Amino acid sequence: MLNGGSLPASPTQQPIAATAANTVSITVGRGVSGVINIPTVSVTVCPPGSTSNCQTINNVQLDTGSFGLRLVSSVLNSSLLSALTPITVNSGQQLAECATFADGYTWGTVRTAIVQIGGETTASAGIPIQIIGDKDSSTVPSSGCGSGSAENTVTALGANGILGIGTAATDCGTTCSNASTAANYSNYFSCPGGTSCARTAVPLSQQVANPVANFTADNNGVIVQMPPVSNTGASSATGTLVFGIGTQSNNALAATQTFTTDAYGNMNSSVYNGTTVTAFFDSGSNAYFFADSSLAQCGSNYAGFYCPSSAQTRSITLGGLSSTRASVSIGILSASTLFGNTSNYAFNDLAGQIGGSSSFDLGLPFFYGRYMYYGFATSTQAPYVGFLGS
């Protein structure tokens, strides 16, 4: 397996049991469509002001690299979907969003819902969420909807939805609320009659919101805890998502290192191979993604992934807005070797190519055997990330 190469020692933190009200179980497995390294949780959604007509949706991807809840419309029952009223802007025009990700985009209306996860809940007035795929593909704006393919179905998305719990409170912020920047960069579109959608400015209160930041308690951050897995992969992995940091006896800040970040959780002063890069911890990425010409890329069967002939170790120095600096090492095995066992879905040493050399994506492989901390931006707290586990 190593073929003369070497891998760094794997971290060994074990998740706590997901039995407290401020916890929920995380599952990595085959999921809804057999995509590897997708951590999922269960989320319950209710209409604003109601505790009835609710629905629990399983297999929602846990994504620390985005912000807000997005659910594929086809997984919601018709009664709930009709009770979640679309938000309107600009004198009654339907509000829709094109949310862009590294591999595609989601298109759909923005609606208000109560969100419950584990024993935590948002207030009865609800928060804005995106309903993916509830608008015809013909309404997708011809410009401003990002690159890549549409991910508006369960099959295309690889999950029933996305739960974005990164460091920001909303998914766009002042870029979309300020008319001067929204005109060119807003994710949001005003759709008169549900069609002819045009980019629009949207106040923060109507932007898709991070549910955890809007919980009535334990709302200042999250801890993602994943168990260690074998270097050859595992069929599944079960972790725990803990809400709040320093608010309960089970969520103390015990990070070995913490890094003050920009609003979106990025460590912009990191260094890889002598080059300054933007590094980030992203559970929504199923591999490490970075540029390294010394690593052999796979053929067309595993396009985008690295397939070195022997095990590899690479190190990156992490640095954010504070003076904290720390070097971490990651292991890399050939994707073709790892994918040879088709019953495995959890991998801690899978890596792939990223466009350009300015970013370093520490995806889900980095999370195994660690506690990953995300402190939200608040009026009294700068956003930060951290981890426990070597």
| Main sheet strand line-up | 2-3-11-4-9-7
Shape label? globular
Q: How much beta, percentage-wise?
A: 35-45%
- Return the CATH topology of the largest domain: Cathepsin D, subunit A, domain 1
Radius of gyration, in Å, reads: 20 Å
Helix content: under 10%
Helices and strands, in N-to-C order? EEEEHEEEEEEHEHHEEEEEEEEEEHEEEE
Q: Care to count the β-strands?
A: 25
CATH class of the largest domain: Mainly Beta
| Main beta sheet strand tally, sense and closure | 6 strands, mixed, barrel
Task: Work out the helix count.
Answer: 5
Mean pLDDT: 95
CATH architecture of the largest domain: Beta Barrel
| Domain count | 2
Question: What can you tell me about this protein's structure?
Answer:
- The chain has 390 residues and is mainly β.
- It is 6% helix and 35% strand.
- It is built from five helices and 25 strands.
- The strands form four sheets. Strands 2-3-11-4-9-7 form a six-stranded mixed beta barrel. A three-stranded mixed sheet has the order 17-18-23, with no helix packed on it. A two-stranded parallel ribbon has the order 19-22.
- The longest helix is centred in the middle third of the chain and has 7 residues, at 179-185.
- It is globular, with a radius of gyration of 20 Å.
- The two termini are 23 Å apart.
- It comes from Paraburkholderia caffeinilytica.
- It holds the Pfam family DUF3443.
